[in-house]
Amino acid sequence: MIQTPYLLFLGDAPDQLAAKVARGIADWRPENSVGQFRMEGCGADVGLPDMTLEEGLAAGAKTLVIGVANRGGVISDAWKEILVKALQLGYDIASGLHNLLRDEDELMAAARVNGRTLFDVRIPSVAYPIANGKKRTGKRCLAVGTDCSVGKMYTGLCMDAEMRKRGMKSTFRPTGQTGILITGGGVPLDAVVADFMAGSVEYLTPDNDADHWDHIEGQGSLFHVSYSGVTMALIHGGQPDAIVLAHEPTRDHMRGLPEYQQPTLEELRDMALPLARVANPACQVIGVSVNTQHMGEDEAKAYLANIESRMGLPATDPYRFGAEKLVDALEAL
Amino acid sequence: MIQTPYLLFLGDAPDQLAAKVARGIADWRPENSVGQFRMEGCGADVGLPDMTLEEGLAAGAKTLVIGVANRGGVISDAWKEILVKALQLGYDIASGLHNLLRDEDELMAAARVNGRTLFDVRIPSVAYPIANGKKRTGKRCLAVGTDCSVGKMYTGLCMDAEMRKRGMKSTFRPTGQTGILITGGGVPLDAVVADFMAGSVEYLTPDNDADHWDHIEGQGSLFHVSYSGVTMALIHGGQPDAIVLAHEPTRDHMRGLPEYQQPTLEELRDMALPLARVANPACQVIGVSVNTQHMGEDEAKAYLANIESRMGLPATDPYRFGAEKLVDALEAL
């Protein structure tokens, strides 16, 4: 588990997009970050107080989180100098970069000398068990998508936030790098060895209070041939009580697969539900989450209304219009 | 690729069962082995000529294959002495043991000094790509099971043997350790990292002649919550033209999951086919393979006849009664 609160390292991010991970952390867990650290010429700003490494420590920060993509996949000397200093001052460092902190000799040496930890969240740090399929206490909700990158993580985060606002017991359970850095823990599912995928999801969502909801971050799609095995492991390892169908309506084809068309929401429902009921016969599809970012407001609302009348399920863009309908549906279960 | 022919190392196997892997190689690819090497007191015999290491070499053997489980998961000193000598004489060594050859310092040193290779087939040796889902030339057949360990490998091997007997173009494509040692190559799918599972199956079954059939070794089951993600990756990475349903009718529950019942063959068909058609819209379920080893002959034949009349599909135990019906169905496609 990565220790919070964080100081967010924005480095020399050329623009806001490069600091997407830091933005996610600041948007979704503002209480987890004391401030941001920006190098000269940084073009990103996530709206937190600017701090030096020393100021961050004084404000209580335990971990420096690299919330920015590095240019060309290389950890530059300018970055390294700052990261080594952070380790010397007493920070741990956490990163979701493709190239690993642990592969940098200077960082490893500085961490060792100063007794600090480097967290490469792309790599599993736990020897996960093989799934045993046993029924667990507590409730679980999983977003399954018509495609990859349609808003499954945001759906889970929005529903979790709405539940906590209502005073309900709720936890967001990350299965990808950004989600892990947002909350400080989780399973980097796409890097888990095949035999242990479903077991890692069981590990992530253990027994809990009967009225507690886990919102499990979805991955891939049953209709995306590159990653459908990962989705399958989430459905069977997560044994969800509730499924939310997630969709992005403006795509021409499946992400990265020009020969493949997106399925309809009905096709997704009819594929996902029987599979989910293998692990949890009580599983229900409770609603639809649509990523409407490429639609005007009227168009988006008409689109959602059409789904509701067609499918008899509540439909919303939880990030744009709120997750109330979806949480109402969970409460009604 | 592991070089053939092999000398099969049976070691000090206490009984036939302990030498199951060697038995599989001798049964399915007798042309790949020049003989067997047995230590004093060995209780197994796969029916090949007994040879010393030197005799094996003289007969053309390139690789010593460890075809026996080791007691207590430890490579004993008695084994090590023989394996080191084999490396010195010029053998490569291949093993599907859980504990790895490469973790034994003496073996690594002997391999290095003598320029030989240690093959631990439980561990992937290739950096597999992410699946691209593109249609490949040639035909592919995949056995999908109601459960794990119901005879999917034997189904593929039987169909491949029958096709080759008929002079058809056919290759068995292993996805597990035993299959890899039988043929000398393949993908240890259960040890592949999640994101690359489907890509590894594409890699295993590349473009081929239009009238060539790959028989892809199945793994797990869509109904086995521990391993269903692996099965899913086979269905989408393999993009099969033909599916054989595989079943073992005498089980009380899913293997290792006492809370889970086996599905019916009809339930398996209805789950697998729509998923397979995502990757290959032309996919057909062409027959049923039943592992009848725990049934009397009359009982088995009645069981198969019942499936045929119920489902309108050819049904056989290909190991007991031959794979002709299944291959006929592929030819008729």
TrEMBL record, chains A, B:
Record-linked Pfam families: DUF1611 (PF07755), DUF1611_N (PF17396)
Domain D-glutamate N-acetyltransferase-like N-terminal: residue ranges: 41-124
Family annotation (SUPFAM superfamilies): P-loop containing nucleoside triphosphate hydrolases (SSF52540)
Domain D-glutamate N-acetyltransferase-like C-terminal residues, every copy: 130-327
Gene3D superfamilies per UniProt: NAD(P)-binding Rossmann-like Domain (3.40.50.720), P-loop containing nucleotide triphosphate hydrolases (3.40.50.300)
NCBIfam families: DgcN
Entry protein name: EBNA-1 nuclear protein
Organism name: Nereida ignava
Organism classification: Bacteria, Pseudomonadati, Pseudomonadota, Alphaproteobacteria, Rhodobacterales
